[in-house]
Amino acid sequence: MTMNEDANDDNDELQPVHRRGLRTGYTTGACATAAALAATRSLLSGHPVSSVTIRLPAGVDASFDMLSCEPAGTGIRCSVIKDAGDDPDVTHGAEIAATVWRASQPGVTLQGGVGVGTVTLPGLGLEIGGPAINPVPRQMILEAVSAEAASEPSKNGLVVEISVPRGEELAKKTLNARLGILGGISILGTTGIVRPYSTASWRASVEQSIDVAAANGQTEIAITTGGRSERFAQSLLGLPDLALIEMGEFTGHALKRALRRGIRRVYVCGMIGKLSKIAQGHLMTHVAGNQVDPSFLASLAGQSGASKALQQRMAAANSAREVQEIAQSAQVEGLFSLVAREAAGACYRYVAGALAIDCLLFDFDGSLLGRASIERRALS
C-alpha cells in the first residue's frame, strides 16, 4: 500500500475519503488466487482456461478473465490484470500471474517469483527469506489449488509460483523497502475486495509499520501527519527509516499500537492544522469528524499575549495556516509552543501516561515552530 503525501497538512480535503458510487475492485491476493486456479485447471485438464470464479473471504463470488493462459516450461502460466476499482492503488492495472507445475512430493507448495517481494525483517508474521504473500492470500491460493487438484487421481503434488512482472518497479512507490520487503510488491488482502479510498487499509499499514519497527528493536518512533512532515522529522531527529511512520489521520490507533508493541517514546510530528485538532483531543483528524477551529487557536494566542483585536482576526481566519501567518506577522510565536504542548498533553492522556510524548510542530518549509515533551509516568 502507498499513502498520500500531505501537500498541505492543513488541507483536509486532500485526504482520502470513501464516497458512495465509487467502484470497488479486487486485491492482489484475489487476483493471484484466480490466476493460480486457472493455471491449475488448465494443467490438469490439458486445455486453456479463459475465466474462473473464486470465493472471496468477504463471502461473495468473483469472476476473473484471464489475460493469458499458456504453457511455461513443464507447467502452465495464467495471468489477470488487477482492477482496483476507483481506488488509487499503485498496483491497479498490474499483471498478476501464477505458474503451476507438477512436483514429485505430495501437496501444494507456494513460492514467490519475479516481482513478489522477499521478507527480510521480522514483524510481518511471515517467514524471513520467504515471499511476501500475506496469510489470507496464502490460504486462498492453497485452498483453491488444493480443491481443484482433489479430483485428480495422481499422488504427485503441485508447485504454484506467483509473479508480478512489474512488481519491482511498482514496489518503489510503496513502503515495502522500509518494512524490509525487497525486490517486489506484497500479495495482500483480507477480504479480497478493494474499497475505494479505504481508511481501513491505511490504518492497517500504519499498524504494520509500527509492528516492524518494534520487532527490529526500535523503542522510539516518529508518527507524522503526512509525507512532508515525515521528511522534516527525519531531518531533525535522525531516526532510521524504520522508525518513521506516516500515520495520516490515525493518531489514536498509532499510539495504541505503539503502546502494545513496547515502544517507549513517540514523536508526534505535523503542521498547525492537524496538530491543532490533536490539541483539542481529536485523535482522528479527518475533516469528516471534525474541522480546524480557528477560535481555539485564537484563544491559545491570547494566552501568548495576542491582543483582543488580533484574536478576533485569528478567529475569523479561513484556515489554520492563515492563523499561523497572522501569528508570525504579529510575532506571537508563543502560540506554536502552546499548540505543541496541548497536542502532546492530549496524546499523553490518551495512553494514560504510558508513553513519553514529544510533539513537533513544523511550518510548511520545515522550520520547527514549537516543541513540547512529556516523559512517561513512573511505573509502579
Structure explained in plain terms:
The chain is of the alpha/beta class and 380 residues long. It has two domains: 19-194, CbiD-like (2-Layer Sandwich); 199-374, no CATH class. It has eleven helices and 18 strands. It has helices at residues 28-45, 135-149, 167-171, 199-215, 227-237, 251-260, 272-279, 294-303, 308-315, 320-329, 334-350; strands spanning 25-26, 51-55, 61-65, 68-72, 75-81, 95-103, 108-112, 115-116, 118-119, 157-163, 181-182, 184-185, 193-194, 220-224, 244-246, 265-270, 356-362, 368-374. The protein has a five-stranded mixed sheet, covered by helices on one side. A five-stranded mixed sheet has the order 15-14-16-17-18, sandwiched between helices. A two-stranded antiparallel sheet has the order 1-13. It is elongated, with a radius of gyration of 25 Å. It starts with 24 loop residues before the first strand and ends in a 6-residue tail after the last strand.
Kindly report the oligomeric state of this protein: single chain
Shape: elongated
Average pLDDT across residues? 88
- Major beta sheet, specifics? 5 strands, mixed
Radius of gyration: 25 Å
Low-pLDDT residue spans: 1-20
Number of domains: 2
CATH level 1 name of the largest domain: Alpha Beta
Helix content: 25-40%
Side-by-side strand order of the widest sheet: 4-5-6-10-7
Topology-level CATH name of the largest domain: CbiD-like
